[in-house]
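Apologies for my clumsy wording, but can you show me some protein sequence, whichever is easiest, together with the matching structure tokens, please?
=====
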Amino acid sequence: MTQFAAEMIGTFFIILLGNGVVANVVLNGTKGNNGGWIVITTGWALAVFVGVVIAAPFSGAHLNPAVTLALAMAQKFSWAKVPLFILAQFTGAMLGAVAVWLVYKDHFLKTPDKGLKSAAFFTSPAIRNNSSNFFSEVLGTFVLIFVIFYFTNAEMGNDKTPIGLGSLGAIPVAFLVWAIGLSLGGTTGYAINPARDLGPRIMHALLPINGKGSSEWNYSWIPVAGPLVGSALAALLYLWLRI
């Protein structure tokens, strides 16, 4: 499998299962309706586990532009490959969102609440405060990237062992994402991944979803810029600690 395919397919499975668990919990008439935050965070952790298992041997399992950016800043990943990886991640995220819509299409039709429909695609804050929401995304992503750098040997990768979330191992990274969701995700829904949020948001705007409402473009920059800033700060701290 090529690195592009690994990143695309791994991200596809993350969105399929991650946004899938949100759809199962929030949409009307599903078996998991009203399952709650614990179900959502657990489902997302397992979704990341699946994505990492698929992609790690081939690309290192970045599956997130914030991870790719941080590794490039830390000189552990080639800047020349950054656009390719990010394109793969966004492609996978958009395809995953389409698959979730197809699976739950009948339940989207039975759900009148526009906010619940959009929740199965992209994040939105519990309390709208751009500065606080931005900080939440920065901090959540900082934790993700800092753990990859500092508490593991992710920096010891080489050409035969691609660097990324897979450097943690699929089970530890799933627990890391679960911990972030349980502890820090209550404010914004913890996108901590620009592709995870913007890719499905684009598909929400494009798909013929009955009564879907706004794609909230006025908020969309926060789950993109916040994770990128958080990843950059984690990379800079990692570089400083190496001095």
Observations:
- The chain has one domain: 3-242.
- DSSP finds ten helices and no strands in the chain.
